[in-house]
From TrEMBL:
GO CC, any one term: receptor complex
Gene Ontology terms, MF aspect: tumor necrosis factor binding; tumor necrosis factor receptor activity
Domain TNFR-Cys intervals: 72-113
First and last residue of the signal peptide: 1-27
Keywords: Disulfide bond, Signal
Residue spans of the TNFR-Cys repeats: 72-113
Organism expressing this protein natively: Cyprinus carpio carpio
Pfam family, one: TNFR_c6
InterPro entries xref list: TNFR/NGFR_Cys_rich_reg (IPR001368), TNFRSF1A (IPR052493)
The protein's name in its UniProt record: TNFR-Cys domain-containing protein
Residue ranges the record marks as coiled coil: none
Length: 206
């Protein structure tokens, strides 16, 4: 009698092992709580079911005898992460003014939009953006307010501060500008004192 039970157990053992293997291959397993599921799984009806790969959506949940069934996203839609969503997201269309396509949409990733030359992508929130013209900085030399360049203070040409802020000056503009030599309003930047030529005037201007 004991031998018959042992033989019967031996016959059942391969079936039990096969069931365990099938359960793993099919991507589902019974667990006690949601915390037991891995990052590649999701919790449903007491089971840890396998998620769909990027580019695929879930069309049927898993069961105790069947894995999750997934379907590839159709053209113009995508899913860029492991998921169990029933629908794919619509791809973005680069139809905004001055927008261009940087990379096209695929089932695994959304379209990447950019802007034409001379514009940059200004993002307002997670879904809103626009192509905005790039602002250009222009250096200006103001007539009558520049000190005369000299070997003693060449750095004075880098700029001066006006009432509205910093004005940057290009060296090539300086010879074309009429100015008072050593204007008293300017300081010798290296010596920290007024220029010795502060009282002189250029072109007879009082």
């Amino acid at each position: 009698m004991f031998q018959i039970q042992v033989q019967h157990t031996r016959k059942l053992l391969p079936c039990v092992l096969l069931s365990l293997i099938v359960g793993v291959v099919m991507g589902q397993r019974s667990v006690s709580s949601k915390r037991d599921c891995s990052k590649e799984e999701y919790w449903t009806d007491g089971l840890c079911c396998d998620k769909c790969a990027p580019g695929f959506k879930l069309i049927r949940k898993c069961s105790s005898s069947m894995a999750s069934q997934c379907e590839k996203c159709s053209e113009g839609t995508y899913l860029d992460n492991m998921n169990y969503f029933p629908n794919c997201f619509r791809c973005e269309k680069c139809t905004k003014r001055n927008a261009v396509v940087i990379s096209p949409c695929t089932p695994q990733k959304n379209t990447v939009c950019g802007c034409q030359h001379g514009y940059y992508k200004k993002v307002f929130d997670q879904i809103s953006w626009d192509c905005v013209p790039v602002k250009r900085t222009v250096s200006v030399a103001i007539r009558g307010l520049l000190p005369k360049p000299s070997p003693r203070s060449p750095e004075i040409l880098s700029g001066f501060r006006s009432g509205s802020g910093q004005v940057r000056v290009c060296n090539e503009f300086v010879p074309k500008v009429k100015y008072e030599v050593g204007n008293a309003a300017f300081m010798d930047t290296r010596q920290g004192r007024r220029s010795r030529m502060g009282q002189r005037r250029h072109n007879g201007v009082d």
